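User: Structure please.
Assistant: Input sequence and predicted structure:
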Amino acid sequence: MCAPIRPLALRKPRNSFCDMNPLTDLPGEVTPASSRFVTLLSGLGVTHVVTIPDNTSAPLLLALAKDDPIRVVYATREGEAIALASGLWLGGARPVVLIQNTGLLEAGDGLRGTASRMGIPLVLLTTCRGYPKARSAGPKRRAEKQFSGT
């Protein structure tokens, strides 16, 4: 007879990404621009925002957390966000997809194979990763970096 299997006592590390609640633990704060944008989305009849949380979109996601009519759906990768939004649209919702520019290439298969093939009209909002840092460096430094590779 085999000995009974005891479950392992796994301890979650404190302050890890696993402990993060995307609705309350995003960095940053709601800005006036993000609040106005949520009002615009509501006015256009958007029902869902399908996204992958990141620092750039945090102010918008925090503003959406305070807005009851628009539901936020979190995806694990960009192609999945396209598929989720496509399914929501087929079910009668009016979703918007919010991703980073670096994830746009990853979403290509979902855009071509799901949304485009099925004729689904998706609005895709793309944030620019690294833009605030590049903007603060100024145009001369951006040009130097581009040509020197440093």
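The longest helix spans residues 131-148.
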